[in-house]
Model the fold of this input.
Amino acid sequence: MSYERDNIHRMAGYTWGEQPRNPGTIKLNTNENPYPPAPAVKAALGSFDVSTLRTYPQPTADGLRDRLAAMHGIARDQLIVTHGGDEALRLAMTTFVDPGAIFGMAEPSYSLYPVLAEIQDARVVKVPLAGDWLPAKDFVDILNDAGARLACVVNPHAPSGMLLEADAIADLARRFHGVLLVDEAYVDFVDPARNHDLVSLTRAFDNLLLLRTFSKGYSLAGLRLGYLIGAPALIEPLVTKTRDSYNIDAISQALGEAAVGAREYAAETWRQVREDRERLRHGLARLGLEAPHSESNFLLARVPVGSPLDAAGVYAELKQRGILVRYFAVPRLDDQLRITVGTAEQNQRLLDELRSLLS
Ligand SMILES: Cc1ncc(COP(=O)(O)O)c(C=O)c1O
Done:
């Protein structure tokens, strides 16, 4: 007999990205920033006063919250700091979706969404993306007809890197009857020339939440820091009711503040990643692996029909050779590989190994 709730007993749980056993492995499978955190973060860790750990941290991470709010030109009550973007998603699910109610998502996207819905015992409506990885025309209608209370759209999209413009997001928010969470985990890598900024939309739409993370842009996946931006009425129940009592530890608060203070450093890593992404995309295309333009720090490359190895085979062989990329054994993605943009040297190693595998 099991003591678990039925829905927990039935569910499988989230599958983490593979962690390399060998320290020399080139890890291009979980979209981390290939560059280290800012020197200011290292300095803040070095000077952190351990004696302050005796007492609880500031409960709502207000120092960091205020810095982030100032950076985005919003007020403190429009933002909550969370334990990674993943906690932000969990909070949205537990706050806005009743057990048994509908959660909506575009498919394919982040595989944690349906897992969180299962934990909440919510029902999931997955709406397939159109051929260009953008939401289908009837995306919102399908979700409204199903009565979805919350929907997640990842933008730039993962795993394709496709960016939905602000106008299109505004249209989704305007028409959707529930809370629309736009997961901007990779937004830092968007070309600044596109002037892509959804923050002002959160003033216009009281049902729009934006998710951000320090994991990718700020090279701090190991720290677990993220945040949500939205109308005060959406943020308030998360801050006062559903988050853990002290969800951000004191070290994360201090290092997060240091990272935001050193945003220029992070922005330089984003520029470098964008440059290397284009070089890698062209290098892959020369080997026959076409990847659509990406506004993120990864590429979704198709292994051409007739290659000596299919995508699963390429993934397995690369792993043998010490390079991890992401293979999804699911319809529409099973002939492709999602490849995180690494350093120039890592990308070159990848291209060299691919050349020897596919020639
Ligand atoms: C689309 C997407 N959203 C959110 C996250 C959560 O990131 P984190 O919990 O590390 O902030 C990830 C992590 O890979 C992601 O790919």
Summary: The chain has a mean pLDDT of 97. The two ends are 55 Å apart (CA to CA).
